[in-house]
Amino acid sequence: MSQLKNVEARILQCLQNKFLARYVSLPNQNKIWTVTVSPELRDRTPLVMVHGFGGGVGLWILNMDSLSARRTLHTFDLLGFGRSSRPAFPRDPEGAEDEFVTSIETWRETMEIPSMILLGHSLGGFLATSYSIKYPDRVKHLILVDPWGFPLRPTDPSQIRAPPTWVKAVASVLGRSNPLAVLRVAGPWAWSPPLDPIPAAHPAPVARRGQDQSLQPSPQWQASSCPSQTPRLHHLVAVSKPWPSLVQRFRPDFKRKFADFFDDDTISEYIYHCNAQNPSGETAFKTMMESFGWARRPMLERIHLIQKEMPITMIYGANTWIDTSTGKKVKLQRPDSYVRDMEIEGASHHVYADQPHIFNTVVEEICDSVD
């Protein structure tokens, strides 16, 4: 966990806006790792962002500053993922889903957030929808970004959209194991040795985090953490840690997605450490899925349960492996409600990272429509 903490600190130091990073303790002793950006902007409905499977707060780094320019932004690691507590989940699909949803509501109560604009990506979209069914009065607008787990699994194999190569590769390696077990099985073999370190011009300061502690990155630390603000990162900071080559091998696109901020393997390292721990949330996800692309309790069978007054926007990547026809099916099930579906060109499943500027603009417009 300390390695995850360190690499996440490097990511968060790229933020320009004021932010708080701390654990939020729930009554059942679980803790939810939370990052709040622009906490001083309290006159508008806050935006709450829920990450997808295997992710964490650090993957929103391309979006946090823009989306917190005029309102408070909250991100958190889902229970069982990232730096949050990793308890044992119920072993049935409904129980596992309810555990996630209850933790989100308990987190909201503890944070004293009366209502929110709720955005979820992939698994986060599935859980955000489930949350909106159960707690509709807390959500002013539901934003679903390439949501997982909506359609029913087709009985005709020809109707199943082929997953990307990396999904097939992971599936072939894992077999019946948990989805990310290969990272833990690989252990040290998932890491490649780094290049020889280049001495840093100055020792890197330590970012200290505590409950309700405000963190404002210093210019020096911004320069040594964000290559987008410097000619070359490794000219300023010693490269002293190996990077997870297995993540890079399966998902080489992630380095490209975040190239504006990091020209090293920071993001691959972050993803590795998010998923090389006790597979709590991962096991819950496996319980909830029929196979990697399908949910045992498809959300399309329940979307009608959301109050008709709640507006929903569904954002897809034009090149995603997720079934984008889901948006039109949601419209058909909610004829008297506001449902907008759209595709962002040049984006795949990770829309927020593939086309961050377009994504941020779209989400900002949605938020401005609320208040």
Automatic annotation (TrEMBL):
Q: Which Pfam families match?
A: Abhydrolase_1 (PF00561)
Segments of skewed composition (Polar residues): 212-226
What is any one GO biological process for this UniProt entry?
phosphatidic acid biosynthetic process
Q: Which Gene Ontology cellular component terms are annotated?
A: lipid droplet; mitochondrion
Which InterPro entries does the UniProt record give? AB_hydrolase_1, AB_hydrolase_fold
Mind listing the GO molecular function terms for this protein?
Answer: lysophosphatidic acid acyltransferase activity; phosphatidylcholine lysophospholipase activity
**Which intervals hold domain AB hydrolase-1?**
46-173
- Where are the annotated segments for Disordered? 201-226
What protein name applies here? (Lyso)-N-acylphosphatidylethanolamine lipase isoform X3
Source species: Balaenoptera acutorostrata
> In the UniProt record, what gene is named as encoding this protein?
ABHD4
